[in-house]
Amino acid sequence: MSYDVRVWSRDAIADADLFPGSAGWTAHAGSFVFSEAARWQIVVEVSAVEPEDVPSEIGDELLGVGRVADFALWPIDATKSARKICRAKS
What we know:
Layout: E1 3-9, H1 15-18, E2 25-28, E3 31-36, E4 40-48, H2 56-59, E5 67-74, H3 80-89
Antiparallel strand pairs: 1-5, 2-3, 3-4, 4-5
């Protein structure tokens, strides 16, 4: 199982915004990965979305949504430091 967070945005999400001082992050086929000694990893995928793909509960609160970032932390029982990184980035 994983701990998942989805972040919606109106504007493009720049790598520098997601990963300031990006030491430890690597790019892999359209996603970014941070891991610690094969014990846990955080995977972030950022993509553009069409207006019709935005859930109404999001679109009603945030007009003009155009991007979504999906954060996944594996495994769900990862260390507290891993969960702290995931929360800070979302």
